[in-house]
Amino acid sequence: MDFRSARLAVLQLLGALAPTARPALLQWMRTTRDFDEFTQDNNDIMLKSIAEELRNYLPLETMLPSEHLALQKIKQHPEPTVHVDAFLYDEDFIDSLCEEGKMSRNYCMVCGSQQTAPLGFISHSFSLMELKFIYHHVLPDLSGKILVDVGSRLGTVLYGGYLYSSALQLYGVEMNEDFCQLQEMVIKKYQFTDRIKVLHADICTQGSLLQNADVIIMNNVFEYFLNEADQARAWEYINHNIRKQGSLLVTVPSLEESLSGLQTNIQLSTWIEEVPLNYDVYPEKDMDREALEQIHLYKIL
Ligand SMILES: C[S@@+](CC[C@H](N)C(=O)[O-])C[C@H]1O[C@@H](n2cnc3c(N)ncnc32)[C@H](O)[C@@H]1O
């Protein structure tokens, strides 16, 4: 159907509607998110299709049996917490899983009683909205630049960088081999091989990659995956190797928060300068402001 016929069909439909129902339909058309799937650009659709594909390979909690320490740490959380990957499961998807009884947003505080409290949710990946915020509003034009995602997991930062930026090369470094294989599968299938490379390695063996990078992304890399002594050592390594003047470091949460409670000799004031971000770039109804405010940008001095 071409545009003229579609427009006519919509007008005819409105004309045929009971006049009392018309305001409600028009209001729904003005405000609904049901049209989102028709208005997203191709890159969003491609990322959603990657998420759909990855959901078939991973359990609902998106944690693998090989992630011993992370599984243990989540269990020890003071409040009951579930892991839901924000790239694989957006808010609408979680709502539908809750409706089907496959997931709950609440837990029972006293076993057998009706008293419930909200469950804590942890995501180990950026959501589509966070990726778009980073590439459209946090980072400058990346033409000719090298980007490194420390702990690339499902590869979301790499695919987002391929589709939403002109970065010359996007490197992911991931210590979990199973996740590296999943990333390789996506990179081949979607033909991202010319600009994305994944290294199965501990970031603490990748000094020269970090030294040459123009942009380094660190989304909650160590907290759930290393014990405190190893976290401190890894941060010292990062601090020692990310030294290229003017290069950019994007972190979640802030460096202050990540380093608090760890024994390190890192002097933030001589290493980095924080670049303020504008978090008000999306209409309120579309955004999870709390999640965006966790994103911080630093320039290396
Ligand atoms: C929270 S996920 C980040 C996922 C991804 N960067 C994103 O934003 O969507 C952190 C990942 O870092 C990996 N990781 C933790 N310590 C690492 C290390 N020392 N070297 C390489 N990867 C590491 C973990 O296995 C985990 O998959």
From TrEMBL:
Keywords: Signal. Coiled coil: none annotated. Residues 149-249 form the Methyltransferase type domain. CDD domains: AdoMet_MTases. Pfam families: Methyltransf_11. It comes from the Eukaryota. Residues 1-23 form the signal peptide. InterPro entries: Arsenite_MeTrfase-like (IPR026669), Methyltransf_11 (IPR013216), SAM-dependent_MTases_sf (IPR029063). PANTHER family: ARSENITE METHYLTRANSFERASE, RIKEN CDNA 2700097O09 GENE. This is Uncharacterized protein LOC101653412. It comes from Echinops telfairi (Lesser hedgehog tenrec). The gene is LOC101653412.
